[in-house]
Design a protein that fits this description.
The complex is a heterodimer of chains A (248) and B (787). Chain A is α/β, with parallel strands linked by helices and 248 residues long. Chain A has a single domain (19-245), classed as 3-Layer(aba) Sandwich (Rossmann fold), CATH 3.40.50. Chain A is 27% helix and 27% strand. In chain A, strands 6-7-8-3-9-10 form a six-stranded mixed sheet, sandwiched between helices. In chain A, 49% of the residues are buried. Chain B is an alpha+beta fold and 787 residues long. Chain B is built from 23 helices and 20 strands. A six-stranded mixed β-barrel of chain B has the order 3-4-9-6-8-7. A six-stranded mixed barrel of chain B has the order 13-14-18-15-17-16. Chain B is elongated. The two termini of chain B are 30 Å apart. The chains are: A alpha/beta (248), B alpha+beta (787). Chain A binds chain B through residues 30-33, 63, 66, 69, 71-73, 91-92, 95-96, 98-100, 102, 104, 106, 108, 110, 112, 114-115, 119-120, 122-124, 126-128, 156, 166, 183, and chain B through 2-4, 6-7, 10-11, 14, 295-296, 299-307, 309, 386, 388-391, 393, 397-398, 400, 784-786. Chain A: Residues 19-246 form the ABC transporter domain. Chain A: This is Putative ABC transport system ATP-binding protein.
């Protein structure tokens, strides 16, 4: 069961971490309520690994993900990606960072409803340096047949796969997935996880998946347990399970 | 095409209803602007070109009779470029198949100098041959009214002699762009016209061979008109000169100029108001539309689109909508401007119309629209884009609703939950609610500005022809006549009642302010011509002193009790002083009045009259006309009913068009605003309402929540709108005070009702559209996706 004191991040045998977070805190003012989402998080992530952030809702994992992705800045602490300082509140620099390095997958897909699958992907490939074609990206997620459908014509699983194609089409170094299966049934969820694992495996993309579904932890290299704004503990799986072996 | 641009077109298609409504609002604003300014531009350019090409004179004078030898001395005056002498006489015509008396101004044409001042633009035929006393060119509008063409014949009374005349041509002259009978405010082309005859022939008819009684001068560049006028007056006074005057006081020019000034006022006022309203709406509506896309903006940013790219995207979207409106408005404005110009062409007799649209006009209209829309967009996008994407993608924290004042007053228990929702929602964003109210109110207000002119004109006519001028017929004599002519008139058939008047042309001066007009001497206690005070009660004529139209008092800067200088412009032109006894209310024209015997006394003359007002038995009117035609002293006859008809025709042609166009535009704007308010409210609250449906609320109930808000805001906007509209009407009326007419603000209940009805119908139609959409809310989707 969770220990109160978080162990130091696992660094020993790994190469230099791609992400380094130290003492991260984040405080939100939500309406009239003050929310402490992160209360001092230390974490390193290594290039190419698949990490699952596991924890109940409100435990701070989304906040951490948003900070890693340059969608938000911490209230205090340091966070670094390679040679980028992610604590700097510089919109232009953050935009550039997201554009060049990060792919996002959101729980509710966040597709642009007025664009087809292909166009949603093109939206990102058009502003990337060395992207795959939208067709390749969609083929990668198994949607070669549905490229010209609008979001409203696709099932949730298909929409999420478009979102993944959109996220990976730019060949990002980092793929950040916030509850990618949260809005999906188990069968569809597994299909989506398979795609994420495949991208991680085939493209070597450092992948962070947020979930509150403990089953999914089995497919990770490492599992970071979150609770109440802290990293509670970190586990390393001896072997990764294939997504198809998961069920809930 | 780039994906982002595709999104733009698809978004546009998706919101086409709203986009069209916004574009229509812009179109109306731009359309009004372009219509007015292109019309005004066309008329001004045409006026200038016409005056220049046809050598419209710059100084004019009328005199009794001067020898032709005076011309050389006039031409030699410093500043004078060219001096032309003429014979100008008012003549009576006997038109075949037209029983009423017709008056014409007969102007001589130089027999030897075809390219003189005030050149004729021949429409048909040729000029009269020198020395032919039977050949005339008639003015085109008069020719049209009587279907005269070269070869047509009619009779005229020239100097008491009946003479057969043959039309050899029809023409227009820059001197008579407005052909108004003296003393009349409206053109009557059937009963008054201008014609031209050779100088020698006309001179001989009036015993003015080798002499002249009218003068036109052109000036050298840089000459001082007043200096020339003073010198001319010195020369012509011994010959019965009635005072030279500059072009600005020339009748046709003065009227034309005032009309164009007034159009200019409208052209700056109306479009500014329409553009202002349109710009305001555009700003509000676009701002809210963009705010709705907060999440998409965050998503774009999450994928690395910078603020500039996102901003550009939305600016493009707005530019397309606004641009469509500007384009449509320009086309519409040019089309309407051409139509309006044609209407003015019917009224002003220009030989051609140079249509001119200054590119600046379009630039201004487009600029105002794009800036308004752009500002709304930039502010909204900035607000959305300056949020951290993580935050923008999260549902907004629950809004801080509070109990409203109405609830706090203890009325809460009478209000259902949905009613409380409506009130709290309005209350939560007071500024937004206020903007919606202001938008609808402005739309409601501009409807009044379009309609009020009709109401006002109806009222003015009622006062002028119903309460002040009540005669059936007015008769003017060729010269001042002995008072006993009154008894001759009373003996004529059909005549039931006669009141006589004396009319003396004067120049009134007070300090450095002066005005040319006429003093009317009228009989005390008269019933046919009444003077009214500010409350429209009959004013008793003072035994002494002079009464002025209130506006004339303002023009001269005088009040009751002030002394003014009266320079009489006939006879031996005495210079006298008079006391202003008071001011009278008149909406049309400006005049001065005295009691008849007081005026005779003032003029040091016996009982003398210039004309009479008659009340007649309409059944015997033809017989009366026959008799009047036979009296050489009668210079002209005007029928009040005809004046009213002429006025109404003029109004139908000009103002109705204007009223119609502006009302249609105002209605479109009103609908655009209300519809957009409703649609945006639906988008903003769709989720909440769908959730309520899930909870078991009926369609009717959620419809009530959404449309109830629209209804309350609309109802609140109506009184504000009527109030704003009245204010705008007062402003328009205030800026349209001219010598020609003053516009009182009169709004009849039907006008208010119409404005209210337009807003309510717009709201009802928008409500129906929104209601239909409410019926198709996707309940399941709401449960699955975040806000």
């Amino acid at each position: 069961m969770p220990e109160q004191s978080a162990p130091p991040p696992l660094v020993a045998s790994s190469p230099r971490p791609i992400f380094e977070a130290r003492g991260l805190t984040k405080i939100y003012q939500m309406g009239e309520v003050r929310v402490e989402a992160l209360r001092g998080v230390d974490l390193d992530l290594v290039a190419g690994e698949l990490v699952v952030l596991l924890g109940p809702s409100g435990s701070g994992k989304s906040t951490l993900l948003n900070i890693l992705g340059g969608l938000d800045t911490p209230t205090s602490g340091t966070v670094r990606y390679a040679d980028h300082d992610l604590t700097v509140d510089d919109d232009a620099a953050m935009t550039q960072y997201r554009r060049e390095h990060v792919g996002f997958v959101f729980q509710f897909y966040n597709l642009i409803p007025s664009l087809t699958a292909r166009e949603n992907v093109a939206l990102v490939t058009e502003i990337s340096q060395h992207p795959m074609t939208p067709e390749e990206a969609l083929a990668l997620v198994g949607l070669a047949q549905r490229m010209d459908h609008f979001p409203s014509q696709m099932s949730g699983g298909e929409q999420q796969r478009v979102a993944i194609a959109r996220a990976v089409a730019k060949r990002p170094q980092v793929l950040l997935c916030d509850e990618p299966t949260g809005a999906l049934d188990a069968q569809t969820g597994v299909m989506v996880l398979e795609v994420i694992a495949r991208v991680n495996r085939e493209l070597g993309t450092t992948t962070v998946v947020i979930t509150h579904n403990a089953v999914i932890a089995a497919m990770a290299d490492r599992v970071v347990h979150f609770g109440d704004g802290h990293v509670v503990r970190i586990e390393r799986n001896a072997s990764r399970k294939a997504a198809s072996e998961l069920s809930w | 095409m780039r994906a982002l641009d595709r999104k733009l077109w698809r978004d546009l298609w998706h919101m086409r209803g709203q986009a069209i409504a916004i574009a229509l609002v812009v179109m109306c604003g731009v359309g009004t602007y372009v219509m007015f300014l292109s019309t005004l531009g066309a008329l001004r350019v045409t006026q200038d070109a016409y005056y220049r090409e046809y050598r419209f004179a710059e100084v004019f004078a009328t005199l009794k009779r001067a020898p032709e030898s005076l011309r050389a001395r006039l031409a030699a005056l410093p500043g004078v470029e060219r001096a032309e002498t003429r014979v100008v006489e008012q003549v009576r015509l006997d038109m075949p198949d037209f029983v009423e008396p017709v008056t014409a101004l007969m102007v001589s044409l130089a027999d030897d100098a075809p390219h003189g001042l005030n050149g004729l633009h021949l429409r048909e035929g040729r000029l009269p041959l020198p020395g032919r006393p039977d050949e005339v060119v008639v003015s085109t509008p008069f020719a049209k009214a009587h279907t005269l063409h070269p070869g047509s014949r009619f009779h005229a009374i020239l100097n008491g002699r009946r003479q057969a005349l043959t039309v050899v041509g029809t023409a227009l002259s820059p001197e008579f762009v407005q052909q108004l009978r003296p003393g009349s405010a409206f053109p009557d082309t059937k009963r008054y016209g201008v014609m031209w005859m050779g100088r020698k022939a006309l001179g001989q008819a009036y015993d003015l061979d080798g002499a002249f009684n009218d003068l036109a001068l052109s000036l050298r560049p840089g000459a001082d008109a007043q200096d020339v006028i003073d010198r001319v007056d010195e020369l012509i006074t011994p010959f019965g000169g009635l005072g030279a005057y500059a072009r600005k006081d020339q009748r046709s020019h003065r009227f034309l100029d005032q009309e164009l000034d007034q159009l200019g006022t409208l052209a700056s006022l109306f479009p500014t108001m329409f553009m202002g309203v349109a710009a305001f709406l555009l700003n509000v509506v676009i701002g809210r539309l963009v705010t709705m896309q907060r999440e998409q903006i965050a998503t774009l940013k999450a994928f690395g689109y910078g603020n500039a790219a996102v901003m550009l995207h939305y600016l493009k979207l707005v530019a397309v909508i606004t641009g469509a409106g500007v384009l449509g408005g320009t086309v519409l404005g040019v089309w309407l401007g051409a139509a309006l110009s044609r209407i003015y062409m019917e009224f002003y007799y220009f030989p051609w119309l140079k249509f001119s649209l200054e590119p600046m006009t379009i630039v201004e209209a487009a600029g105002a629209s794009l800036i308004a829309a752009g500002a709304g967009t930039v502010v909204a996008v900035w607000r959305a884009a300056s949020l951290k994407p993580a935050q923008a993608m999260r549902p907004e924290p629950p809004a801080r609703y509070r109990e409203t004042a109405i609830e706090k007053l203890g009325l809460k228990r009478w209000l259902s939950q949905p009613t409380r929702m409506i009130l709290r929602h309005i209350w939560r964003r007071p500024l937004k609610s206020a903007l919606t109210v202001v938008g609808i109110a402005l739309a409601c207000g501009i409807i009044l500005t379009g309609l009020f002119q009709r109401d006002t004109v109806g009222y003015m006519m009622n006062v002028h022809y119903g309460m002040a001028q009540r005669e059936d017929l007015s008769v003017a004599f060729t010269d001042p006549t002995a008072y006993r002519a009154r008894f001759d008139l009373m003996g004529l058939p059909a005549v039931e009642h006669v009141e006589v008047f004396r009319s003396v042309p004067v120049r009134l001066r007070h300090g450095h302010l002066e005005h040319r007009t006429a003093i009317r001497g009228i009989e005390a206690g008269g019933e046919l011509q009444r003077l009214l005070d500010a409350d429209l009660r009959q004013v008793a004529l003072p035994a002494d002193g002079i009464l002025l139209t209130d506006h004339l008092g303002k023009m001269l800067g005088v009040r009751a009790g002030d002394r003014i200088v009266v320079e009489v412009m006939e006879g031996n032109r005495p210079l006298r002083e008079a006391t202003v006894a008071g001011l009278v209310k008149e909406y049309l024209g400006v005049s001065a009045y005295m009691e008849l015997t007081a005026l005779n006394h003032f003029m040091h003359e016996g009982p003398t009259i210039s004309g009479a007002w008659l009340a007649v038995d309409a059944a015997q009117l033809h017989a009366l006309y026959g008799e009047l035609k036979g009296i050489p002293r009668v210079a002209g006859v005007a029928e009040r009913v005809q004046e009213i008809r002429n006025f109404n025709r003029l109004m139908d042609e000009t103002m109705l068009f204007f009223t119609y166009v502006s009302t249609v535009f105002a209605v479109i704007i009103a609908f655009g605003v209300v519809y957009n308010s409703a649609r945006i409210a639906l988008t903003e609250r769709g989720r909440e309402l769908a959730s309520l449906r899930v909870l078991g609320f009926t369609r009717g109930e959620i419809g009530y929540i959404l449309l109830g808000e629209l209804g309350i805001l609309t109802l609140a906007a109506i009184p504000v709108g009527l109030w704003l509209g009245e204010g705008m009407c007062y402003y328009i009326a205030h800026t349209m005070q001219t010598e020609l007419f003053r516009v009182p603000v009169v709004l009849v209940p039907q006008t208010y009702a119409f404005a209210v009805a337009v807003v309510l119908v717009s709201a009802a139609l928008s409500g129906l559209v929104v209601r239909r959409r409410l019926d198709h809310l996707d309940l399941v989707a709401v449960l699955k996706t975040p806000e």
